Amino acid sequence: MKKVLVVGANGQIGKHLVTFIQESDQLEAKAMIRKKSQASFFKDLGADVAVADLEGDIEDIKKAAEDVDSIVFTAGSGPHTGKDKTIMIDLDGAVKTIEAAKQANVKRFIMVSSFDTTREAIQSAPESFAPYVAAKHYADKWLKDTNLDYTIVHPGLLTNDEGTGQVSLSGQSEPTEVPREDVAKVIKAAVENDNTIGKSFKVVKGNQAVEDAIKAV
């Protein structure tokens, strides 16, 4: 049984992911949350819980990661925070988690990014969205420059629609919708399939079963 640390577990994708992991025969989840008051959802699922703040010390994140086999970073500052929180969570929080993974000797790292984090995407993004794209751009680059066994997932336009279990991992240039539930299924499948190591891919709604799509990456 392999243990997965889900950073940002209390987010919408994070909650789906922990649920799916706990339903698996091969994986078990450890939910990293910011407040103890968020723990009951995860304890009811039988998941381990670690309380650590992405704006705190790397040491706290390292402690959360010391008994796990892989880390999924699915934390985000959210759409209603300012540029400062975007930098502190989506960039610095991601980098600190990467560094904590290295210090805790956790090789496998899955990053949930933005749909397009290229330099061109930063330049063309609306002023209010550009800091988020820039933060994700540099967090992705930091991860790629490590020797970690990374996978970077680039979701399309996230919705709360019920998941279909079918996606497209094509490299299309314009984002289309994808349910958060299906993104969580893709992340879980990426954890389980080593062929995704060293790869980045976009996720949108499609007509290919998640497992088949992941195996074809």
Automatic annotation (TrEMBL):
Residue stretches making up the NAD(P)-binding domain: 8-193
Recorded superkingdom: Bacteria
Pfam families, per the entry: NAD_binding_10
InterPro entries: NAD(P)-bd_dom, NAD(P)-bd_dom_sf
Protein name per UniProt: Putative sugar epimerase YhfK
Organism: Alkalibacillus haloalkaliphilus
